[in-house]
Amino acid sequence: MKLPYNNKQTFPPILPDHDEWPVVKLSKHRAEFVDLVTREAVARIKSLRPGTAELIKELEATRYKEKLRLQNEPWEVDPDDEVAFWKKVKADLMEISGKKETGGREDEILERIIRRYADEIAGHFKHSYYRLAREIVTFGFARLLNASQADNFAGLFRGKRTLRDKIRIRGYVEQIRKLAKLGTIVMVPTHFSNLDSILIGWVIHELGLPPFIYGAGLNLFNLKLFAYFMDSVGAYKVDRRKKNLIYLETLKMFSNLAIQQGCHSLFFPGGTRSRSGMIEKKLKLGLLGTAMEAQRINYEKDNGQRIFVVPVVLNYNFVLEAPSLIHQYLEREGQEKYYIDSDNYTTSYKIVKFLIKFFTKQAEISVTLGRAMDLFGNYVNDDGQSIGKLGRPIDPKGYFMQEGRIVYDKQRDE
C-alpha cells in the first residue's frame, strides 16, 4: 500500500530479535562464508578459464594489473603486506611458467588470491556498533536540526524537531515490510552523494527492517569517520581500481551467495553518483545481476525463496560533492573546455562541516519507495505474487525453465 507522508508514524521491527537478522547470521559465520565464496569463485574462474595454460595466463594478467594498481593508485587503506603478497605471487608464477607439469600450483595460487579478495570484501557487522552508529546519527543530526531553532546552546537539547521532520519517507512502505517477511529485498536507489548509504541505512531502520548489506567503495574507508560506520553496519568493500576477472567474479560471488542466504541488499544501479543530477538512464547490471543468478539457484534448491526489487528515489536540495560533480559533468560534456577540480569529499572535517550546513538550513530530503517488482520487471502484490501484463498472477519460475526444468542461461543470468 502506498502511504501519504506522516512523520509521526512509527514502524515496529519485523524481526525484533537481532540474532535472527540475516546479516548477523552471516557475520557470526564470517570465516565459513569466506570459505564458501572462495570455493565457489575458484570453481567459477576455472570454468571460465579451463585448462592449465589459460588459467596461468589469467593469473599472470591479474598479477600485472595489480602491480600497476599499486604503482599508480596506492591508497592508505591498502594492507601493509600488499606489495609482498603480489611479489610472492610473481615468484610462484615464474616457477611454473612454461612447464608442462605444474603439480596443481596454479590452483593453489588462484585460491590464495581469491581468498585474499574475499576476506577483504567481507564486512564485520557488529550489532553493538550498528546500534551505536544509529544512535549517533539520530542524536547528532537531530541536535543539528534543532540548532536552526535554538537561541542558545541549551536550546539544542530542548528542540522538538526530529529527523523525520527533515527526512520525508513516502511510498509503498507497508508493502515492503510485508515482502521482507516473505523473501529477500534488493533495494535500488538513485545515487547523488556518498552520504546516500548512511541515509538509506537510517531509512531502513525507521521502517523496522533488518539491516541491508551494500557495497561501499574502498576509497571511503580512507576516511576514518566513514570507515567506522560502514565496516560495522553491513557494508562490504568494493575496490573499483581492481578490474581483473578474478576480483570481479569474487565480488559477484560474494553478493550472489549473500542474497541466497537471505541478506537484504542495496545496489546503486547507476554504478556511481549522478554527475548531472538526473536519474540514471544507463544502468550497470554487474552486481544487480547476481540477484538473478541467486533467484535461479533458489529455485533449483526448491526452497522457492523469492527476491523482490524495490526502486527508491532520493531527492536533496543540495549535496556535499555538488561542485566537483558539476565540474565532472561539464568536463564530460564540454571536453577540453572544462577541467576537473578535486573532490570536495576528502576529509572528515569537510563531511562534518557539510552536515552542519545541511541540517541548520531549511532544506529537506525526500525518500520515495517505489512499488516492488520481481527480477523480470513485473509488479508484485502484497502477497509476493508477480502480476503479468494482463493483471493476473504469474509464476516467475517459468522464466528460468526450458522443457520442464530450470536451466542456466548466460545471457539472462549474467
Descriptive overview:
This protein has 414 residues and is α/β, with parallel strands linked by helices. The protein has 2 domains: 23-121, no CATH class; 132-413, no CATH class. Helices cover 47% and strands 11% of the residues. The chain is built from 16 helices and 11 strands. It has a 7-stranded mixed beta sheet with strand order 1-7-6-2-5-3-4, with helices on both faces. The protein has a two-stranded antiparallel sheet with strand order 8-9. The protein has a two-stranded antiparallel ribbon with strand order 10-11. α11 links the parallel β3 (213-217) and β4. The longest helix has 21 residues, at 52-72. It is globular.
* Strand ordering within the main sheet: 1-7-6-2-5-3-4
Output the radius of gyration: 23 Å
Helix content: 40-55%
Give unreliable regions as ranges.
Answer: 150-157, 337-342
Question: What is the arithmetic mean of pLDDT?
Answer: 83
Which sequence of SSEs, written as H and E, runs from N to C?
HHHHHHHHEHEHEHEHEHEHHEEEEEH
User: How many domains make up the 3D coordinates?
Assistant: 2
